[in-house]
Amino acid sequence: MTNVAGSIRSRLKRADVTPMRAWVKQRVQLRLARAGYLVTKIDDDGLRYFEVSHDSDVPLPPGAEETLRQDNPRLTELREAYNALEYPSAVPTQWNDTFLSKNLSLAWFRGDNAYVWQLRLFTSSARTRNYLAMLDVASRDKLGLMGKLKEDGLFGAFTFLFGDREPVSRDLLDSVNEINYLNELTGLADLEAPTVLDIGAGYGRLAHRMSEALPNLAAYDCTDGVAVSTFLCEYYTGFRELPDTVRVVPLSEIEKLRDSYTVAVNVHSFSEQSHASIRWWLDRISERDIEWLLIVPNTEGELLSTEVGGEREDFLPDVLAAGYVLEDNRPVYQSDELREMIGVGDEYFLFHKTAKA
């Protein structure tokens, strides 16, 4: 009996169970499909649509990896200065240490991360959707910035090539779109010595692009309530060798801001702050002479904050109370047909100052 059992076990060990596994897998997938579910294995490229990632095809420039470190003395200094502040704007509700540890790689700060969603923005078919976004943006590029501003893919940015066109990225497309929009509504490119305040400037994306796009720009001040953003902005604006007209003003030195600006911009920043923080920033805006205020929220059709518990509060009344009226509200991608295929419903909210608050 023992020999028989041993023989059976031996045969089972030698048996090829692959057909059985395949049959079971097929049956399970069939039942799930009938229930309305499709289960497939995601490869490494597919995973990029669901997690923080970067494109390392373009290597980091010399010294970047050594400088862009969590233990950099300048970053430590900024963190200590920000932590000592009692401003509501210095208390993050979304951009806390836990969020940053999961959503940001310092050396690859232009990858798909907390600052600019790239592959994750589109969830699939990023190449096709970036092509459609490029067509939409290029159709309104009256300043010719698609041919003037370049994308080199540094610091992890995902780039896309289409025919004989120059490489594009979301950094580039968003910037070209925003600059053309502001120019259409405010005449920014034709003004004599316009000035810009960028609240929630991140790593300095728009500062880099606008300073190259508008030679008439007299001043561009970047500020942010997150220490690591100020650190990266200082590094990036220096790396790009931007002119002296571009400044990075730490939150701890907010008194160094100018008394007046042509326009203040806030792109995907207020939506990630508390209501108290937004009100604090609006106080800083209203006490200055700032004619235009551009807000690009994360939520379609609404201006909503992010509170500690995840609640959202409407801050449109606070903008109006600061002495502004809504001048224009339109989708970021303006072709109805393309916008549906791109799958992004972001909107511009442009306010004009009418009176002192």
Automatic annotation (TrEMBL):
This is Sugar O-methyltransferase. It comes from Nocardioides cavernaquae.
